[in-house]
UniProtKB/TrEMBL annotation:
Origin organism lineage: Bacteria, Pseudomonadati, Pseudomonadota, Alphaproteobacteria, Sphingomonadales
Record GO terms (molecular function): aminopeptidase activity
Keywords: Aminopeptidase, Hydrolase, Protease
Keyword Transcription regulation belongs to the record: no
Signal peptide positions (record): none
Entry keyword Membrane: no
UniProt xrefs under InterPro entries: AB_hydrolase_1, AB_hydrolase_fold
Native source organism of the sequence: Sphingomonas guangdongensis
Residue stretches making up the AB hydrolase-1 domain: 84-145
Stated name of the protein: Serine aminopeptidase, S33
Entries under Pfam families matching the protein: Abhydrolase_1 (PF00561)
Length: 232
């Protein structure tokens, strides 16, 4: 699988600017969604980002009636941050799951990490939502694999990475939805979903995708649908 064409990559910054403008226009109207049940939702940031990148998403979840949490691990530097076996991230999720399993929402690399933990500690995870997360293909299906190697200290051709990716790709034992966009200029859109999970397409690029009104509304709808299914 190849990364997106250069023509899409060149649209990323204009699309990000448009996302911010749409957010300012639509923010108030996004509150008109079904109310949550108060369970904890942890949001995992993308490569090199911290909890600050997800403030808007967490605020939206809070006002819908969920208890939104950041991951509290600083910048996402891959295994350097979460531990080679994800032990630091798992410890954070264990602490958050004192009242019951937690929904994990992961942006880009954060989504890959969310799926990894969901496979390894399924009793801690109520459901998973990935946002523009290339979990279904080689890292070379992105324009950021070299940055990934530089930031994380890992090599995408390492057999350890291949084994981890195979684990992440496997179907999850809990509800999983992949949010993706065909206009993504950094990661191949087909790398962000599989037939083994639900999928929601949004009209967004990659940069700032977690701020896009369609993503915020989509996350609220996905969570509401899951609550409705659980109540049946």
């Amino acid at each position: 699988m190849k990364p997106p064409p250069l023509s899409l990559l060149l649209t990323e910054w204009p699309r990000a600017a448009g996302t911010v403008a749409r957010l300012a226009r639509d923010w108030r109207g996004l509150a008109d969604q079904p109310r949550g049940d108060g369970h904890r939702v942890m949001v995992l940031p993308g490569l090199f980002n911290s909890d600050r990148s997800n403030v808007v998403l967490r605020r939206h979840l809070d006002r819908l009636g969920y208890r939104a949490l950041g991951w509290g691990l600083g910048r996402n530097l891959g295994a350097r941050t979460i531990g080679a076996d994800a032990r630091r991230l798992i410890a954070r999720i264990e602490a958050a799951a004192v009242d019951g399993p937690v929904t994990l929402i992961g942006v880009s690399l954060g989504g890959i990490m969310a799926r990894l933990v969901a496979h390894r500690r399924p009793e801690l995870v109520r459901g998973v939502i990935t946002i523009s997360s290339p979990f279904a293909a080689s890292p070379r299906a992105t324009h950021v694999w070299r940055a990934f190697e530089w930031v994380t200290g890992e090599r995408v051709d390492d057999p350890v990475i291949a084994a981890r990716l195979a684990e992440v790709m496997a179907p999850l034992p809990m509800p999983a939805t992949a949010i993706w966009g065909r206009h993504d200029g950094l990661v191949a859109s087909t790398a962000c979903r599989t037939d083994a999970c639900d999928a929601l397409e949004v009209p967004s690029g990659h940069l700032g995708v977690q701020l896009h009104p369609a993503v915020l509304r989509g996350v609220g709808e996905i969570l509401a649908q899951r609550l409705s299914s659980e109540a049946r």
